[in-house]
Amino acid sequence: MEWLDPTDKVSRFVREKTMQLTVSGKQVELSDALRVHVDTQLGNITAKYFDHALEAQVTFGRARSFFTCDINLHAGRGITVRGEGEAADARTAFEDAAEHIAKRLRRYRRRVSAHQRDLNKIKPEMARAYILAPESEEEEHATPNGVDTATQEFHATVIAEDMTAIETLTVRDAVMKMDLAFQPVKMFRNSKTGGLNVVYRRTDGHVGWIDPEA
């Protein structure tokens, strides 16, 4: 075991085997028994689908009277799998999140394996991703100097910036990756047309697909 920073308020734990695992708790005390259980269970799940080193972050927290668990599993070669859980205790919250991980991997088992073996993948493009601050009602209705703001142009306030990868994928693989990562939307370059496409989760449970080239 290696403690990354004993003075950090968020306790962390890293175990090096075939998988690099980081377990952290936000306002949650984590026992060694729980850490070992997380390591063992994730190892058992991932061993069925991947034969190389993995990286995973497991974060426990509190929401009202419940414990929460968020798992982010990075399997390399563009595969990210995410699972969330919530329960009355931390162990059960982890089991819930781990089951979501296992269910998504079972659903796409053959395609995940094929994706891992694909040596001819096109290198993804890198793009800037921004998080914008929401516009408040006061800003929306304010009329400084007697000028109606409806006729003025406002620039959004950027509160965070990062780099994101835009992969070249089939529509089917884009939907798979969006589902594995539990994302609401995914932008990608269509491997058939070369154009930028978007797939997204609809409120009716279906998946939407936007193709400007269509």
Automatic annotation (TrEMBL):
Q: Where is the secretion signal located?
A: none
Keyword Hydrolase assigned = no
What's the main place this protein lives?
cytoplasm
Name the family the entry cites.
Answer: Belongs to the HPF/YfiA ribosome-associated protein family. Long HPF subfamily.
What the protein does comes down to:
Required for dimerization of active 70S ribosomes into 100S ribosomes in stationary phase; 100S ribosomes are translationally inactive and sometimes present during exponential growth.
User: How is this protein organized at the quaternary level?
Assistant: Interacts with 100S ribosomes.
Q: Which GO terms describe its biological process?
A: negative regulation of translational elongation
Under InterPro entries, the record lists: HPF/YfiA_ribosome-assoc (IPR050574), HPF_long/plastid (IPR034694), RHF-like (IPR036567), RHF/RaiA (IPR003489), Ribosom_S30AE_C (IPR032528), Ribosom_S30AE_C_sf (IPR038416)
Q: Where is the Sigma 54 modulation/S30EA ribosomal protein C-terminal domain?
A: 156-208
Listed name of the protein:
Ribosome hibernation promoting factor
Q: Name one Pfam family in it.
A: Ribosom_S30AE_C
Could you list this entry's UniProt keywords, alphabetically sorted: Cytoplasm, Ribonucleoprotein, Ribosomal protein, Translation regulation
Q: Which GO terms describe its cellular component?
A: cytosolic small ribosomal subunit
| Matches recorded under SUPFAM superfamilies | Ribosome binding protein Y (YfiA homologue)
Which HAMAP family does the UniProt entry name for this protein?
Answer: HPF
Q: Enumerate the GO terms in the molecular function aspect.
A: ribosomal small subunit binding
Instruction: Provide the organism lineage as a comma list.
Output: Bacteria, Pseudomonadati, Pseudomonadota, Alphaproteobacteria, Acetobacterales
Q: Record keywords: Ribonucleoprotein included?
A: yes
Q: Where in the cell is it found?
A: Cytoplasm
